[in-house]
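Question (not urgent): is this output format expected?
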Amino acid sequence: MTTVLFAGVIAFCRQSRKGAITFSGLGIVIFLLAWVMYSIVFPLSIAHADFCTDGGSFLRTRVTQQVLDTVEFYRDCQPNNARVRLGLPPPSGGQLPPKLPVETINDQFTSVQEGEQRLEALLFILFNRSEDVSARLS
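Got this back:
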């Protein structure tokens, strides 16, 4: 696409009739090919994300097992089904999910709030205490 556009600009600058006609013809062909590719690639990528990608493996890398067990338990209130759906063995103890580590969650929220305050301070400095920035952050 870039090559055809560059050649088209050169053709129009030189006022070449052949170049302008060739550019127009190739431009239409490239436009149609790009739309065909986009109309195939976009639905295929969405279908792959919906039907082929497993979100459980990503969640297991980001969230603790206790949180996963609790969320899966409250999805259907059957701990055995929840763990099997995640590809894990059934729970060894009781029928209820383990307690959530509230202190850990609280620490994470506190660090997020501190990061937000640092970001706001940097934005105020970066944009010279602009009223637009302060209005959008409020």
